[in-house]
Specification:
The complex is a heterodimer. Chain A contains twelve helices and 26 strands. By secondary structure, chain A is α+β, with helices and mostly antiparallel strands. Among the domains of chain A are: about 110 residues; about 90 residues, no CATH class. In chain A, helix 8 packs across helix 9. Chain A is globular. By secondary structure, chain B is of the alpha/beta class. In chain B, the strands form two sheets. In chain B, strands 2-1-5-10-9-6-7-8 form an eight-stranded parallel sheet, with helices on both faces. In chain B, helix 1 links the parallel strand 1 and strand 2. Classes of the chains: A alpha+beta, B alpha/beta. Chains A and B meet through helix 5, strand 25 and strand 26 of A and helix 1 and helix 9 of B.
Chain lengths: ~475, ~350
């Protein structure tokens, strides 16, 4: 049994996939704990929790301070002492007193610690974290080296984002862990990962809804090339699928690049809870009148058109001409955006999809499908996803060092490229199996990067340096096929 | 303002032999540094992959017979000199490097980039019209200059800052008054040419300017030569574009040379060139990588320094680790500057008949 749970803005959707698919909706007002209590069946639980984290990230009043250790190279304002070079050697130590003075003078809610080349040697970040422990609990300290990617500016932004949400990630891990011992988190790129990995890099949970919808649509419809139109409460997301998989892109947070990958989607600022004045407005102010809200929304407009959603009588205060114009404008806006993608077919998801998508498709002149469980397609996508992970390995024979995803180990020798790829492939499989992967999902390990060169000292080849990146790609697990 | 970074991972493929000083390891650490600094995504920097140079473009500089020799030697391997053997597949790599320089030059000339740095391998400035030499096969700089002139550029100022004299480039433009070739280089050192009295010939007389410096010469002397020789000449010559042969074997950690230039000193020198270009040729400046063999020591920082200076980024942190200070002290000869000043004075006298700024 595969169980997927997607904590949305208004409801938590739960899907059960075991040959048959079943789904339920639990209002968030009852608490996530209530949704968890409904999952009594045994099976693998995967959880998508992007919405609460998205809200937390939208709060700008949390103060995050950053301990930057930029060393040599490009200049960073506020950089502190300490330097790791491109080989991963510590060439200048940190100044613990400097960090102490900085943290005393700058009280904050959480701290981000990022050092240049920390992915080649995390020692200085760890030493700085020891200093920070005197001022912050560990849940409020985020480090950059587990992010593994060489890209210091993007790691800084990601680490700040992580500092902002790490405590909430700890809370979620504890909350879900109390109900279900073994569970996995659903990432924004469509793969599953362990709670331990999430605590090192909670940014992977951010904005995971498009990935969930994409996998759900592909699983429920079998379509390989289509555009998923997911009508939510606040937004309508358009997620393109090509050859059965969504495209991913770099997550941009606060206008700045991160190292986190998310599924590419176009988000239109209109959904079932969008407020109606003269027409539909790109804003949400609580629930629809039909669900106890104080302002009329698109959902109320549909009730005025004859549907019976929620307490549909409460929608009567919305004037009919305003309701008709709002629905008309909404369909036109979405149809224009859909047409711009020029998909071969569209697949409607979300509770309102069966009502609105046929009209959107007609206006965009595209065929459409509303899959079964369309209202919970996102939770289905979470349920059928597979464990995926990327391993970044840097081998340095001269230093007898291998760094894998920011963690340093020892190595006696660096063999040829084939041997190193084999080592990394075996390691990524080992890690994926330990995380709970289905062995059938590990047949296709992708080698994303492989480069190496000889180190020459005094005209003699003395050792080799190699960088290898291998991946168990996100996708649908063999168990669901 | 956009700085073009002309780079292709194929530049890492060329190798004469795994232990040759001009080997792929040279750029590998630099690429790591650039990736870690986020330069491949920097808003002021655009990475661009070049096309290979065409035979026609190459033969504006090199004899067709030499290009045919390279072509044949590239099939089975060949020999030019003990420093410069021809590994199989060389011509493709050399054409890509020449294409890199050319792409950088033409992109700046057409305004696609404000300025550009071609991070190419193999280097080019020892290659003459009829032969390669000193790790070089095709003269990337000269091929770029001739192509720019083909596209309408009238005058080019070449600043060759490799520690070795750019004898190949000098020979190609020796009689050409449309190219002002200037070179600061260590002497004595390979190839042995580049005395101050080599000033050009025929119509090109006065358009070759050599500034030999003794071992142990450092930042102060390089900046002195820039301020008192290069900048006045440049203003009077008034080029359409400035092209730097950006050798970085002037760095104090370089194992093949004996100079004492720091990463910051080099970066500041490039910044001065950028400001000079701003004042005389609408900022049009292109840098082409030549030598530089301190693969783990200086190269990642000097290459980064060039890019930071071209892109107008702060240079405060372009530096070596603090522990390198002792090596710098050992490399520096305190008496070198006086000798540099003396040579510069003699050079100005020699050039006075040709340049008002020195008369």
């Amino acid at each position: 049994m595969l169980i997927g749970m997607d904590v949305g803005g208004t409801n938590t959707d739960v899907a059960f996939v075991d040959g048959e698919t079943a789904s339920i909706k639990v209002p968030n007002s009852a608490g996530i704990d209530t949704a968890l209590s409904r999952i009594s069946r045994p099976g693998r639980l995967a959880v998508s929790t992007s919405t609460p984290l998205n809200h937390l990230l939208a709060e700008r009043d949390r103060k995050i301070v950053t301990i930057l250790i930029p060393g040599m190279g490009l200049f960073y304002e506020g950089g502190m002492k300490g330097a790791v070079n491109h080989c991963g050697d510590i060439v200048e130590d940190i100044d613990r007193d400097e960090i102490d003075r900085f943290l005393r003078a700058n009280p904050a809610d959480a701290v981000a610690i990022a050092g240049k080349f920390s992915v080649r040697n995390p020692a200085l970040e760890m030493a700085a974290a020891e200093c920070a422990c005197r001022y912050f609990p560990k849940e409020r300290i985020a480090l950059s080296h587990p992010l593994a990617v060489l890209d210091f500016p993007a790691r800084i932004v990601t680490t700040r984002l992580n500092a902002r949400i790490r405590e909430e990630a700890f809370r979620l891990v504890s909350l879900i862990g109390q109900r279900k011992k073994d569970f996995l988190f659903f990432r924004g790129d469509g793969g599953l990962t362990t709670p331990e990995n999430v605590l090192k890099d909670p940014s992977v949970l951010y904005n995971s809804s498009p990935a969930a919808v994409a996998l759900g649509v592909h699983y429920l419809t079998g379509l390989k090339d289509c555009l998923a139109v997911d009508i939510g409460g606040t937004t309508t997301d358009l997620v393109p699928l090509e050859k059965g998989i969504p495209c991913t892109e770099e997550l941009v947070y606060g206008g700045e690049r991160t190292v986190t990958r998310v599924v590419k989607a176009e988000s239109l600022p209109f959904g079932g809870d969008s407020v109606i004045a003269d027409s539909i407005e790109p804003k949400r102010d609580g629930n629809a009148l039909a669900f106890g809200g104080r302002l009329p929304t698109l959902t109320d407009a549909l009730n005025r058109a004859g549907y019976e959603i929620g307490d549909f009588r409460a929608s009567l205060s919305l004037r009919l001409e305003h309701a008709e114009k709002a629905v008309d404008d909404y369909c036109s806006i979405v149809a224009a955006a859909v047409a711009a993608h020029d998909p071969p077919k569209i697949a409607g998801c979300g509770y309102l999809a069966p009502i609105l998508v046929p009209e959107i498709a007609r206006r965009a002149r595209k065929p459409f499908v509303i899959p079964p469980h369309a209202a919970c397609a996102n939770a289905v996508g979470v349920a059928v996803s597979r464990v995926s992970l990327t391993l970044f390995a840097h081998f340095d024979g001269g230093r007898g060092r291998v760094v894998m995803n920011g963690e340093t180990g020892k190595i006696d020798r660096v063999g040829d490229d084939d041997e190193l790829v084999a080592i990394c492939t075996a390691e990524v499989k080992r890690r994926a199996l330990a995380a709970g992967a289905d062995p059938r999902d590990l047949d296709d390990i992708r080698v994303l990067h492989c480069s190496s060169f000889d180190v020459v000292r005094g005209s003699f080849r003395t050792s080799r340096i190699a960088d290898i990146v291998v991946q168990v790609a996100p996708g649908i697990t063999a168990e669901a096929r | 303002m956009t700085t073009g970074l002309i780079f292709d991972r194929e530049f890492l493929l060329h190798e004469q032999s795994p232990s040759h000083p001009e080997r792929r390891e040279r750029l590998s650490y630099t690429i790591d540094q650039m990736e870690e600094e986020g330069l491949f995504h920097h808003p002021r920097i655009r990475v661009s992959r070049p096309p290979r140079a065409t035979r026609e473009q190459v033969e504006r500089v090199h004899h067709p017979e030499y290009v045919r020799f390279l072509e044949e030697a590239s099939r089975r391997g060949g020999f030019i000199d003990f420093d410069t053997v021809v590994p199989t597949g060389l011509l493709d790599c050399a054409l890509l490097a020449a294409g890199g320089a050319l792409h950088a030059g033409i992109s700046v000339w057409k305004g696609d980039f404000t300025n550009a740095f071609a991070l190419v391998r193999p280097p080019g400035h020892h290659a003459r019209a009829g032969t390669g030499a000193g790790f070089c096969y095709l003269n990337n700089m000269a091929i770029m200059v001739r192509h720019l002139q083909h596209e309408g550029v009238r005058k080019v100022l070449v600043l060759d800052w490799d520690a070795h004299h750019g004898d190949g480039t000098q020979s190609i433009f020796y009689a050409d008054p449309s190219v002002l070739f200037t070179s600061i280089h260590q002497k004595p050192l390979y190839p042995g040419s580049g005395d101050i009295d080599e000033t050009g010939e025929g119509p090109g007389l006065g358009y070759t300017v050599n500034m030999p410096v003794p071992p142990g010469t450092g930042d102060v002397s390089y900046h002195y030569l820039f301020d008192t020789v290069i900048a006045p000449l440049a203003r009077e010559f008034s080029p359409d574009i400035i092209a730097i042969s950006a050798g970085q074997d002037v760095h104090f950690t370089d194992p093949l040379t004996g100079l004492a230039v720091s990463a910051r000193g080099y970066a500041e020198l490039v910044r001065k060139a950028v400001m000079l270009a701003d004042s005389i040729c609408n900022g049009k400046l292109v840098a082409v990588l030549e030598g530089g063999y301190s693969v783990e020591g200086g190269l990642p920082y000097t290459n980064l320094g060039i890019i930071a200076a071209l892109a107008g980024l702060p240079l405060e942190s372009i530096r070596e680790p603090a522990g390198y200070q002792e090596i710098l002290l050992r490399a520096t000869d305190p008496s070198a500057h006086e000798r540099v000043c003396q040579t510069a004075g003699e050079l100005r006298k020699l050039l006075a008949p040709h340049w008002n700024c020195f008369s």
